[in-house]
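Feature request, filed as a ticket because there's no other form

It would be nice if the structure record came with a short human-readable summary line next to the tokens. Right now we just get the raw output. Example of a typical job, pasted below so the devs can see what we mean:
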Amino acid sequence: MEPSFSAQSGTLFRDASGRYCASLDGYRFLSVFQPIFYKGGSLFGYEALLRVVDEGGEWQAPDRFLASLSPERAQLADTLARLIHVRNFAQSRQESCLTLNLLAATVQEDHRGRTHLPLLKNLLQSVELDCGGVIFEVPAREVEHHGQALLDGLRHAAEMGFGTAVDDFGAAEAPHGKVTELSPDIIKLHPSLLHEYMAGETQRLPALLEQGWQIGCRMLVEGVETAEQLEAMRALGVELYQGFYLGRPGELAVACQL
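Raw output as currently delivered:
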């Protein structure tokens, strides 16, 4: 069944190619997907990424756009982004994993003890996607900042069958206590760690890899832009890879319209 939205809550529509888009407060939302690969080169899945275009046709940075909204409008924008990402991925008929970036409020309980997770699970069922192939991704700083409420929400998501991933791990000298406590399925290393390693700082990245492996996480390196970087990370035993050298974000072909 097609979702119904008012002008106040945004609009969902298809473009000329059959891909889903959304609009909110004069801004247009589009989906692109960046591939993630195993060490051996086979495809693991795709990360869904939001693209935002304003009324003048100018591209806006999604993070800054969401940060400029009230919490309520940001949550609505996040919901619209998930709708188009899930539907566009389902229409591609890809047999791989999908990672979705989420606001913390999506998995945390509200004042009535409710979350957005049942609605998301129903959406996946409606387009014949399995929860086990969908991974929720949140930044490490959010895990540390929101603490127990977010940990509980992500654990509940895992109990429902979703995967969990923590992004930007190792950025600056941020604490890692809550990430370690969560023990997500995947830890995504911040690109700065790769750059530091290639520049000669060869202690920190291996130490963080070991920290992740000790708590049973699959480790993913982001920002791979050269063959040299790829081979260096393979030599360290990293399992998953993402970056422009391997594949840029792009639209997925529509195999069937849903």
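Something like this underneath would help us a lot:
Residues 1-7 have pLDDT under 50 and may be disordered.
Residues 14 and 20 are 4 Å apart (CA to CA).
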